[in-house]
From TrEMBL:
Main localisation: membrane
Highest taxon, organism lineage: Bacteria
Protein name in the entry: Mechanosensitive ion channel family protein
Organism: Winogradskyella litorisediminis
UniProt entry keywords in alphabetical sequence: Membrane, Transmembrane, Transmembrane helix
The keyword Membrane appears for this protein: yes
Segments passing through the bilayer: 20-42, 104-121, 142-168, 174-196
Subcellular location: Membrane
Pfam family, any one: MS_channel_2nd
Length: 408
């Protein structure tokens, strides 16, 4: 190869040095052209074979390999070997350049291997995400760890090539700078440890609704990777949270609510204390017309009459003995209303309770769980319940507290 066109150039009167340079460039151009053609042919053939295999197989893993361009990356291996084999012969007359060119080709080989590894790992990641059992797992985190390790290993190999040291001797010399390496990759190490703990403890899954007030996150987890967790908020914005914050900070995961079959309703109305009263017989007769509590009012009034008669209670003063109140009957009405509401989960806790009096009045709270957990439907259910509650207050001679209205 040395005398490819060298002798011809010398015969035409060119100097030996000029002839050597032209001969080298001609050889290099020819080698690169042949290598390119071989690379093109291998790439096309390998791609068509891979496509044919992918169409015939039932699994989609080979389709994912194609989408991540693994066959194309593998196709570059043979042309690279050809260059490694023949480039030194091209630069025989330039030993110094030959040494640097060989190192450059080996470094290109390292990058090619890293591309192949990355394509393969991405294919594995995409394939695992199609499997139901792995769809909510932080696969991205683990794949990123392998990619990082591969790049670190590749960087070590490149440095070993550049310095001329053997790979294992180069690794041995890294002990002195291990502290620097740990400092540089601190976030990566923290993220890796956090990803493992999040996965093992099942703290967060893709698709979970989480609330993280410190980072302003309130929405569904759409991605978990080595360094960050991405949350799509309800206003469609994206919040990025450091993965290690999930184990070092406090956040709320709503998965328990989702899995429970109900979404909590916990809301109250404040009743003006001045409208709460003992009930007279005329009031009871009027309340008996309210169907949900008619039976309750009938039973309770009979029991109270019997008790007061037996105890010879002086009922000329209403406070004496046992009495019913409009507030108590209203509470019972709401309890029966919730029990009969079709959107309330009857297998979970539901109650109506009186809370501690406030300067504004007496809160009456409904505590229950809706059977529909979807946000829009959940808000509709709450609205439907409290529309009825607010409209029914006046039928029990009660009033809802409103700021700014004069108190009687």
């Amino acid at each position: 190869m040395k005398h490819f066109i060298y002798d011809l150039l010398v015969e035409y009167g060119l100097s030996e040095r000029t002839a050597i340079f032209i001969n080298m460039f001609a050889l290099l151009f020819g080698l690169l052209l042949v290598t390119y053609l071989i690379d093109y042919i291998i790439k096309r053939v390998l791609w068509r074979i891979s496509e044919a295999i992918a169409k015939r197989t039932k699994t989609n893993f080979d389709d994912i390999l194609l989408s991540n361009r693994l066959p194309r990356n593998v196709a570059h291996i043979i042309p690279l070997f050809i260059l490694i084999e023949f480039v030194p012969k091209v630069f025989t007359d330039f030993p110094e350049s030959e040494k640097y060119i060989e190192k450059a080709l080996f470094i290109i080989g390292v990058f090619l291997v890293l591309r192949i590894v990355k394509s393969l790992l991405n294919s594995i990641k995409d394939y695992l995400k199609t499997l139901p059992r792995y769809s909510d797992k932080p696969i991205d985190s683990y794949i990123q760890v392998f990619v990082i390790f591969a790049w670190i290993l590749g960087a070590f190999v490149i440095f070993a090539i550049l310095t001329g040291l053997s790979f294992f001797k180069f690794l041995g010399s890294l002990g002195a700078i291990s502290a620097v390496i740990i400092l540089v990759f601190k976030d990566t190490i923290l993220g890796f440890v956090a990803s493992i703990q999040v996965s093992l403890n099942d703290m967060v899954r893709i698709g979970d609704w989480i609330t993280f007030e410190k980072f302003g996150a309130d929405g569904n987890v759409i991605e978990i990777n080595l360094a960050t967790v991405k949350v799509q908020n309800w206003d469609m914005t994206i919040t990025t949270i450091p993965t290690y914050a999930l184990i070092s900070e406090s956040f709320k995961n709503w998965r328990g609510m989702t899995n429970s079959g109900g979404r909590r309703i916990k809301r109250s109305v404040i009743i003006k204390a001045s409208t709460i009263k003992f009930l007279m017989e005329s009031d009871l007769e009027r309340y008996k017309k309210i169907q949900l509590v008619s039976g309750y009012v009938e039973r309770q009034s009979n029991d109270i009459k019997k008790h007061n008669t037996e105890k010879n209670i002086d009922k000329s003063v209403l406070i004496n003995g046992r009495n019913l109140t409009n507030f108590g009957i209203f509470r019972k009405y709401l309890q029966l209303y919730i029990e009969n509401h079709s959107a309330i989960n009857k297998d979970m806790t539901f109650m109506v309770r009186q809370l501690e009096p406030t300067p504004q009045g007496i809160p009456m709270e409904i505590y229950a769980f809706s059977s529909d957990q979807r946000w829009v439907n959940y808000e509709y259910i709450i609205g439907d319940i409290f529309d009825h509650v607010l409209a029914s207050v006046k039928y029990f001679d009660l009033e809802v507290y409103e700021l700014g209205l004069a108190q009687p």
